[in-house]
Amino acid sequence: QMRLMESGGGLVQPGGSLRLSCTGSGLTVSKYWINWVRQAPGKGLEWVSFISSDSIITNYVDSVKGRFTISRDNAKDTVYLQMNSLSVEDAAVYYCLDGHWTYWGQGTQVTVSS
Predict the structure, then answer these.
(1) Are 82 and 19 contacting, i.e. CB atoms less than 8 angstroms apart?
(2) Biggest CA pair distance of the chain
């Protein structure tokens, strides 16, 4: 089964940092543009960031610009989302998806609490 897999979530205090990772099962992540989206409790999906397959193009939702950085290591077939200065508003389940929103992971929970 072709799918993506997220890891790296956890509990962090406000102002803290986490790095999420996105890898693949049955597919080669390095071939795909990758999106990160998130879903907070009781809310809809929110697109967070994307990165092109060659890392040349990246983009972010305004609320995370300057705090989050998306990157990839195609040699490791992994995409990362470095999240700094986390706030309670960033708490959500984070998912990575391919560029066409075809392949998803199970999500990784990010909890921001003091």
Answers:
(1) yes
(2) 39
Amino acid letter, 1: Q
CB distance 81 to 94 below 8 Å: yes
Question: How far apart, in whole angstroms, are the C-alpha atoms of residue 85 and residue 17?
Answer: 6
pLDDT tens figures, 47-79: 999 999 999 999 999 999 999 999 999 999 999
Alpha carbon distance 22, 111 (integer Å): 18
**What residues contact residue 104 under an 8 Å CB cut-off, 6+ apart?**
3, 4, 95, 96, 97
Going by C-alpha positions, the residue among 96, 101, 100 that lies closest to residue 24 is 96
State the number of CA atoms in the 13 A half-sphere of 93 facing the CB.
Answer: 14
What is the pLDDT, as a whole number, of residue 110? 98
